[in-house]
Specification:
This protein folds into 2 domains: 170 residues, Nucleotidyltransferase, domain 5 (2-Layer Sandwich); 134 residues, ATPase, nucleotide binding domain (Nucleotidyltransferase, domain 5). 39% of the residues lie in helices and 20% in strands. Strand 1 and strand 2 form a beta hairpin.
Length: 371
């Protein structure tokens, strides 16, 4: 039984994990708070983590124990002493935000004399595609409802695409808990490009999902935007040039924003350019490495076109595709707890109770030789 905390950016999350089952995964979003500013304000995010952490933790304990919402935290059937380990995201992320979850988890681990696992946020994303809804029948003490469960019995080497507002990377996951960075973004991440283009178009924050929704009714072939680094054989990404191209396009043709149909076409064309790059480079990396499986996670993995095109391309190439459940694409503590559980079960040493947060923590120190 593990308790996991996540506070790397603007979502406070607490999860309870038991033998691969996610018994609770509470998330408090701060989207409305930061919408006024058009982006995440670190000081406000930190303050909200302080405000939300205890209520979310208490609710997670109630949910995991099957207790009704009216039951107080002190009366919950699930007590902190029952946990075998405590985990928290310690990087990368906003420094002060990371400290809220990490210090709380370290304090609990110290008070309970339990091991503490400091978890790499992106590494946790690597394993989120292996967590899926499953009926919990037969599990002692678990209600007969559909729960998220991590199943590593069919785990196989895979190329994993992690794509979010701040990061776009390809990782070769050679085996459980063994991975190598293939490529990273050299400037803007895909999610950042979506959000910045949406802002140029005057769409409300967060812009990426709004752009995706409008693109569903648009023509992706209406405008021809560049596909940065699409033909490059390396696995890095770059989306700043695409963003700049859209900026100049709107500068020269501002009247397009007054036509709802053309706005939808613009959204669809920008989305098509970003998704083409992500899918092509991901599938190409899998074929070059000779792996039979592709996984994808991170907030941008909620994008409908990305999910469709990845599925189509993988099917054409005979690749198995595992997409993170939409509830686990954005920041969450469930994936943190699952990864900590895997580390515990593989007898990896816990982290130090005085470990510092690592805002710029790289996912891997080196690339795969020869790639």
């Amino acid at each position: 039984m593990l308790l996991a905390l996540e506070s790397s950016c603007d979502e406070t999350s607490v999860a309870v994990v038991h033998n691969g089952f996610v018994l609770a995964n509470g998330v408090a979003s701060q989207i409305k708070l930061h919408a006024e500013y058009g982006g995440v304000v670190p000081e406000l995010a930190t303050r909200e983590h302080l405000r939300n952490l205890l209520p979310i933790a208490r609710a997670a304990l109630r949910t995991a124990s099957g207790a009704p919402e009216s039951v107080g935290a002190g009366q919950s059937a699930l007590a902190l002493a029952q946990f075998d380990a405590i985990a928290a995201t310690t990087g990368p992320g906003l420094p002060q935000a990371l400290m809220i979850g990490a210090r709380a988890a370290q304090a609990m681990a110290f008070a309970l004399r339990k091991p503490f696992f400091g978890i790499h946020h992106h590494e946790a994303h690597l394993y989120s595609p292996w967590i899926a809804p499953e009926a919990a029948g037969g599990q002692p003490g678990i209600a007969q409802t559909s729960l998220l469960r991590a199943d590593f019995s069919r785990f196989q080497p895979n190329v994993s695409l992690i794509v979010s507002g701040g990061h776009t990377m390809l990782v070769f996951v050679e085996a459980e808990l063994k991975h190598h960075l293939l490529g990273n973004t050299v400037d803007d991440a895909a999610g950042e490009c979506f959000d910045k283009v949406a802002k140029l178009m005057g769409l409300p924050y967060p812009g990426g999902p709004k752009l995706d929704a409008l693109a569903e009714q648009g023509d992706p072939r209406a405008f021809d935007f560049p596909r940065p680094m699409l033909r490059e054989l390396h696995h890095d990404f770059s989306f700043s040039g695409l963003k700049t191209s859209v900026r100049y396009f709107l500068r020269d043709q501002p009247f397009i924003l007054d036509d709802p149909d053309r706005v939808r076409d613009l959204c669809a064309s920008v989305r098509a350019a970003i998704v083409d790059v992500l899918v092509t480079k991901t599938v190409r990396a899998a074929k070059r490495l000779g792996v039979a499986c592709v996984t994808a996670s991170g907030g941008v993995t909620c994008n409908r076109a990305l999910r469709r095109q990845l599925a189509e391309s993988c099917a054409e190439q005979g690749l198995l595709l595992r997409l993170a459940d939409k509830s686990l694409c954005t920041d969450n503590a469930a994936m943190v707890g699952i990864l900590a559980e895997r580390k515990l079960k593989h007898h990896l040493p816990p982290s130090s109770l005085d470990e510092e947060v690592k805002p710029s923590w790289p996912i891997a120190p080196s690339r795969v030789p020869g790639m």
